[in-house]
Amino acid sequence: MGDFLITIYFWTKSLHIIAVLTWMAGIFYLPRIFVYHVERAGVGSETDDIFKVMEMKLYRYIMNPSIIAVWVFGLMLVFTPGVVDWSSLWPYTKGIAVIAMTWFHMWLGARRRDFLAGTNSRSGRTYRMMNEVPTLLMLVIVFSVVLKF
Ligand code: HEM
To answer: Taking the model in full, what pTM does it have?
Structure first.
């Protein structure tokens, strides 16, 4: 198994990075849609319905498949012999930041369901501020995996 994972290492890493790109596209875009949804569309309006469809398609068809692919290829990299040195710090900083990013994904999913039910209680300002969370996590993740401190 280990030998096989070594053979496909560059494929796995390429697919991991591609999945990261599509996941991050959604992670950064969905809160921006929420900002416009809360500030520009009254509950029950035609615009409200358009935003709900946009949010559903982004979350269900882009973000959910992407997060699964990121985890699958990421864990394949973890199990590839020689890739992770557990005596270093970076696997732990990356791991914590990735778990936090996964929590953020779930949080966005819960907020999407609020909008769907017409019960969103958060302001545009809250969504603007929450947009900074994945930015900080992305910095920690990329510095961890590239600098390998
Ligand atoms: C979800 C769970 C994740 C796991 C288990 C995971 C694990 C890994 C592992 C073990 C590597 C291999 C490092 C190497 O080959 O030296 C890697 C590479 C990489 N990961 Fe992740 N990762 C995950 C999520 C993410 C996320 C969310 C991002 C970005 C936001 C990310 C960005 C990268 C990048 C850019 C590389 C390539 C680094 C390089 O080639 O130097 N990963 N990942």
So the answer is: 0.94
